[in-house]
C-alpha cells in the first residue's frame, strides 16, 4: 500500500512484473510527454515549421477524424495544412492530458492522450467565434538519437461545439495579447 493513497501504485510498476520502474523508463515517459506537449505548443504558438519537423518523423502518418470528417495531416505536407487551420485563428489552446504510455519495446511506445482544443476566430465583422474540440490522440512514438518522435498519430474528435469558419480573419503569426485584436 502506498503512503499516498491517491497515487496509483500500479501506474509505476512494470507491465510484466513487480519491479519498480527504472529511472530510464521514467525519463522516457517524461520525454514522450514533452514531445506530445511540444506539438500542442507548436500549434498554439504558431511555430509549426520550427517545431513539428523535430517532433514527427519525416513521413509520419497523421489521420484526424472529427465526428465523421477526415483530415490527413501526414508529413511533410501536414505542416502546411495545420498552418492553414491555425492561421484562421487568433489564438488556440490545445490542452493535453498526461499520456497513458504502453511501451512495446525500449524504442517504441503507444500513447493515448486526452485533448481539448479551443480555436478562437475573429470573423470579418469583428465578432469572435469559438470552435471547441475534444477527443483523443493515439500516437506511436519511436526513439531516435535526438529523442522521441511521433511516427503515427490518429486523432478522434468525440465532441465539437461551435464551428470552424473558413472565411475568418487571418492571423499568420501569434498575436500580441497585450493589445486589442
Architecture overview:
By secondary structure, the chain is of the alpha+beta class. The chain has helices at 23-44, 48-55, 78-87, and strands spanning 56-66, 69-72, 91-96, 100-103, 108-122, 128-144, 147-161. It is built from 3 helices and 7 strands. Strands 1, 2, 3, 4, 5, 6 and 7 form a 7-stranded mixed β-sheet that branches. Strand 6 (128-144) and strand 7 (147-161) form a beta hairpin. The termini are far apart.
List the helices and strands and how they pair.
Blueprint lengths: L22 H22 L3 H8 E11 L2 E4 L5 H10 L3 E6 L3 E4 L4 E15 L5 E17 L2 E15 L20
Parallel strand pairs: 1-7
Antiparallel strand pairs: 1-2, 3-5, 4-5, 5-6, 6-7
Helix pairs in contact: 1-2
> Would you list the SSEs in sequence order as H and E?
HHEEHEEEEE
Q: What gap, in angstroms, lies between the N and C termini?
A: 54 Å
> Helical residue percent?
10-25%
List how many beta strands DSSP finds.
7
Based on secondary structure, the structural category is alpha+beta
Content of β-strand = 35-45%
How would a textbook summarize the main sheet?
A: 7 strands, mixed
- In DSSP terms (H or I, runs of 4 or more residues), the helix count works out at 3
Q: Mean of the pLDDT scores?
A: 90
Question: What Rg is obtained from the alpha carbons, in whole angstroms?
Answer: 18 Å
Keywords:
single chain, 181 residues, alpha+beta, seven-stranded mixed β-sheet, 3 helices, 22% helix, 40% strand, disordered N terminus
Summarize the structure.
This protein is α+β, with helices and mostly antiparallel strands and 181 residues long. It has three helices and seven strands; from the N terminus they run ααββαβββββ.
Amino acid at each position: 500500500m502506498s503512503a499516498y493513497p491517491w497515487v496509483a501504485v500500479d501506474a509505476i510498476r512494470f507491465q510484466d512484473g513487480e519491479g519498480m520502474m527504472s529511472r530510464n523508463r521514467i525519463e522516457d515517459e517524461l520525454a514522450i510527454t514533452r514531445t506530445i506537449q511540444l506539438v500542442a505548443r507548436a500549434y498554439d504558438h504558431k511555430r509549426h515549421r520550427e517545431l513539428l519537423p523535430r517532433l514527427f518523423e519525416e513521413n509520419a502518418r497523421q489521420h484526424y477524424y472529427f465526428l465523421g470528417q477526415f483530415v490527413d495531416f501526414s508529413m511533410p505536407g501536414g505542416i502546411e495544412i495545420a498552418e492553414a487551420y491555425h492561421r484562421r485563428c487568433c489564438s488556440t489552446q490545445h490542452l493535453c492530458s498526461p499520456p497513458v504510455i504502453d511501451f512495446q519495446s525500449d524504442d517504441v511506445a503507444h500513447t493515448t492522450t486526452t485533448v481539448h482544443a479551443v480555436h478562437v476566430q475573429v470573423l470579418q465583422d469583428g465578432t469572435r467565434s469559438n470552435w471547441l474540440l475534444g477527443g483523443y490522440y493515439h500516437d506511436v512514438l519511436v526513439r531516435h538519437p535526438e529523442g522521441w518522435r511521433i511516427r503515427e498519430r490518429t486523432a478522434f474528435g468525440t465532441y465539437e461545439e461551435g464551428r470552424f469558419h473558413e472565411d475568418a480573419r487571418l492571423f499568420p503569426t501569434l498575436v500580441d495579447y497585450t493589445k486589442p485584436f
